[in-house]
From TrEMBL:
Residues 147-383 form the ABC transmembrane type-2 domain. It holds the Pfam family ABC2_membrane_3. Belongs to the ABC-2 integral membrane protein family. This is Transport permease protein. The chain crosses the membrane at residues 31-52, 191-214, 240-262, 274-294, 301-321, 327-345, 357-378. GO terms for cellular component: ATP-binding cassette (ABC) transporter complex. It is a multi-pass membrane protein. It is found in: Cell membrane.
Length: 385
């Protein structure tokens, strides 16, 4: 164990400054890694941003019109007039429709019976939709659009029949007004891009620092640090500062790409967004440093990093809503900083939430940062001893 006098035991900015300078020099010697840290997040955002667009433009539909009347053609026109359904083909056999569904060439098939016009006149017409349920996104969209359009069309037909018969058209007993808040166009990009920014920044910053001390161990330079009067807190902060600078630059690039490339607007305070993002970056950097203190080599550090990253994708609410998960899984998700950062990102991007609403998540991130930093310093101190 190295014995230090009382003067050497005190926190010294000179030693911290030396560690920061040394770390920047090491980073400068590895320009490829620096370029990856700055450019890779933007490339990932562009690639995953387009890949995660789950908006359904139009449902591919094939039609079996056994009626071949003006009424059946009007029904088809109603379904396709707004672009909700894209007619792929007109078929003459049910088995052909089923074959197209089997091949995945269409998402739904519409069957209009031969006596459709006669049944329509007596309010008993039935049309059938065959929907491919293998893809729930398209299946739900096809089901919703078909039910909505057919209901509106049925009301129109009923009104026309009453007018033709001279009967009084009753007023609807129920009227409704719908207003969608925060994302009126319900564009998935507005919801997904902020979450992608958080996920990508976690991956990059975690991996960046997970190798910081491990590399020193493998190169044998950690022993050189141990014989110096450097204090654990000075070393850990010295390691964090350069990567915080790089992580902040990387975050700025990704944020600008999200705003200007994907045209995702920030409804809330950009300054608050940057401030809380910096808090998240420090938390994930501290987590990476902690991994670096317990891993014996870079391979172990990589495995440990993936052990954090993979559950984050599933449990943080990035893909699936946490409210639908069992309580135990929700509790596990609560141990991941990304869970709280996603709520902050979506809150500021979409709802213009202020710190008055986001302080619980901010406090948890601050708690993660403090606990991980203390654990890292304690672990490294033990290593020194």
């Amino acid at each position: 164990m190295i014995r230090l006098n009382s003067r050497e035991k005190r926190f010294r900015f000179v030693r911290l400054q030396a560690i920061v300078r040394k770390e920047f020099i090491q980073i400068k010697k590895d320009p490829a890694s620096l370029a990856i840290a700055l450019i890779l997040p933007v490339l990932l955002l562009v690639l995953l941003g387009y890949a995660m667009n789950d908006d359904v433009e139009s449902v591919h539909l094939s039609v079996l019109d056994q009626s071949q009347t003006a009424e059946s053609r009007e029904l088809i026109d109603r379904l396709t007039s707004q672009g909700d359904f894209n007619i792929m083909s007109y078929e003459h056999n049910v088995s052909v429709l089923e074959h197209l569904l089997d091949k995945g060439d269409i998402h739904a098939g519409l069957i209009i019976p031969a006596d459709y016009s006669k049944e329509l006149a007596t309010d008993t017409a039935v049309v059938q939709f065959l929907i491919d349920g293998s893809d729930p996104t398209y299946a739900q969209e096809a089901l919703f659009r078909s039910e909505s359009l057919l209901l509106n069309y049925a009301q129109t037909v009923q009104t026309e029949q009453l007018v033709r018969s001279g009967a009084e058209v009753p007023n609807s007993p129920l009227k409704h007004e719908t207003q969608v808040f925060y994302n009126p166009s319900m564009d998935s990009m507005e919801f997904n891009i902020p979450a992608l920014i958080g996920l990508i920044m976690q991956e990059v910053t975690l991996i960046l620092t997970a190798f910081a001390l491990v590399r020193e161990k493998e190169q044998g330079t950690i022993e050189q640090l141990i014989v110096t009067p450097i204090r654990p807190v000075e070393l850990i902060i010295g390691k964090l500062v350069p990567y915080t600078v790089i992580g902040t630059m990387s975050f700025a690039f990704v944020l600008l790409a999200g705003v200007f490339w994907f045209d995702v607007s920030i409804a809330g305070d950009p300054f608050l967004l940057v401030l809380l993002s910096l808090l998240f970056l420090v938390a994930t950097l501290a987590m990476g440093i902690f991994i670096s203190t317990i891993a014996k080599n870079q391979l172990q550090a990589m495995y440990m990093s993936f052990a954090v990253i993979l559950p984050s994708v599933i449990l943080s609410g990035f893909v699936f809503p946490r409210e639908s998960m069992p309580m135990l899984i929700q509790l596990l998700g609560g141990l991941i900083p990304l869970t709280y950062f996603l709520e902050i990102l979506r809150g500021i991007f979409l709802k213009a939430n202020s710190l008055q609403l986001l302080w619980p998540q901010s406090l948890v991130l601050l708690g993660f940062t403090v606990l991980l930093s203390i654990a890292t310093i304690a672990k490294f101190k033990k290593h020194l001893q």
